[in-house]
Amino acid sequence: MSEDETARTAVRTYVPTYQKQQWAEEADALDMSHSEFVRTMVQAGRRSFDLDESPDSDDSGDTNESIADDTDGAELADRVLTILDDRDDPQTWDDLVAAVTNDVEERLDEALGDLQEAGELRYSGRDGGYVPTGDR
Question: For residue 73, how far is the Cα from the chain centroid?
Answer without folding.
Answer: 13
